[in-house]
Amino acid sequence: MQAVITKDQIPIIDPEQTIKEASSIASALANIVNKQNLFTVITNKTGAKNKYVHVTGWGILMAMRGVSPCVTRCEKLDREGEIAYESDVELISHDGRIVGKASAICSSKERNKAGQEEYAIKSMSQTRATGKAARLSFSWIMKLAGYEPVPAEEMMEGEEQKKQKLPPAAINKLPFFKAQRIN
Q: Average pLDDT, whole number, for the chain?
C-alpha cells in the first residue's frame, strides 16, 4: 500500500529557481534531441507541423532528472482473436522513490499492429507505459524544450495526420530496472 503524502511533506520551492533549472535541462535536451533526430513531425489538420519526441528522448530527460523507468507488470490480456498486453511502469528516482507511474495497452487489432509478432506487441505496451509515465511527470520540461508534451509513441496516425519517416524509438537503450523497490 502506498503511503499518503501530506501537504507538510511537499517541499516549498522557489518558482523562479525551478523554471531556471528546468530551462537549463530543456536547452540541453533540445540539443540532443535535434542532433540525434529523436522526434517525429506530425502535421495536424490545420497544417501545423508539430514535433513529438520518441521515448528514447524522454528517457534522456528522465536520466537528466535522475529517474529510471521500472516495468512492474507486463501481462498478456485474454482477448479472443488478438494478441494484447498491458504494462505498468513506475519512474524510480536515484534514491528509490516512486516519482511517477502509468499503464498502457497494445493490441494486434490496432491499425498498424496487425500481423506483428507477439514480442513487438508486448514491447510496445512497455514503451507506451514508459512514455506515458514520463509525460505525466515531465511534460512541462519537454514543452520548455520546444516539443509537444506527448511522446511520439502515444500519437496514433489518423486521416488528418501524416507522419514523416524518421528513426523509430529504441526502447531497448533505456536503463530499465527489474521490478524491485528500495524501502
A: 84
The distance from CA 104 to its chain's CA centroid, rounded to whole angstroms, is 11
In percent, how much of the chain has pLDDT > 90? 68
Among the listed residues 180, 151, 148, the one whose alpha carbon sits nearest the alpha carbon of residue 71: 180
- Give pTM, 2 decimals: 0.76
Angle at 98 between CA 144 and CA 106, to 5 degrees: 75
- C-alpha span between 135 and 85 (Å, rounded): 20
Three cell numbers, residue 60? 534522456
The three grid cell numbers given for residue 166, joined into one nine-digit string = 524518421
DSSP characters over 50-107: EEEE-HHHHHHHHHHTTEEEEEEEEEE---TTS-EEEEEEEEEETTS-EEEEEEEEEE
Please say if the pLDDT value at position 26 is more than 80.
yes
Q: How far apart are CA 66 and CA 85, in angstroms?
A: 28
Could you tell me what percentage of the chain is helix, strand and coil, using 3-state DSSP and rounding each to the nearest 5?
35, 25, 40
Mean pLDDT, range 55-75, rounded to an integer = 95
CATH class entry, domain 16-173? alpha beta
Instruction: Please check whether residue 62 is in contact with residue 91, taking contact to mean a CB–CB distance below 8 angstroms.
Output: yes
146 grid coordinates: 520546444
